[in-house]
């Protein structure tokens, strides 16, 4: 039995926005060069995101500062190798135009050093409230209908809801 079979009032709606998380990482032996390359790689990304905002394809975006860290890797014989510097910069963008999102992902996922780290799909806040309201109303109506069947079976009359709660939240009164 699936979750959808157990939860009668689970509803799905088409995505209305997608939040893309991505990062660029540049590695090398020269710390200043790695940092400069990361800053340079960030410029075309932020330029494109600004253009997508102007086209109403992206609602918001942000880009973090370039962070640099260093490590000394080990070789296959267990010896420490030379210091490697890594510059990493992350960006997040919320898309509402999924056709432009597809082109954006295709372009940046194919760029050396860039990685799409996640995409989360959602509906707008306004619609989420409306969808949740509809589901809650349907769940309460269903609960009352179920209770009415029980009441009818013992000839107790019309059911009127007096309290609503999540399981375990009501008082212990019958």
Helix content: 25-40%
Please count the helical segments: 4
- Judged by helices, strands and strand pairing, the structural class is alpha+beta
Number of extended strands: 5
Order of helices and strands: HEHEEEHEH
Evaluate the radius of gyration.
27 Å
pLDDT under 50 segments (min length 5)? none
Average pLDDT, to the nearest integer?
A: 89
**Roughly how many Å apart are the termini?**
32 Å
Strand % is: 25-35%
Sheet having the most strands? 5 strands, antiparallel
Description of the molecule:
- It is built from four helices and five strands.
- The protein has helices spanning 3-6, 31-54, 98-109, 125-153; strands at residues 17-28, 58-63, 67-71, 84-95, 114-122.
- Strands 1, 2, 3, 4 and 5 form a five-stranded antiparallel sheet that branches.
- The two termini are 32 Å apart.
Describe the SSE topology.
Blueprint: H1 3-6, E1 17-28, H2 31-54, E2 58-63, E3 67-71, E4 84-95, H3 98-109, E5 114-122, H4 125-153
Antiparallel strand pairs: 1-4, 1-5, 2-4, 3-4
Any key phrases for this structure?
4 helices; elongated; 5-stranded antiparallel beta sheet; 174 residues; alpha+beta
Task: Provide a concise account of the structure shown.
With 174 residues, this protein is an alpha+beta fold.
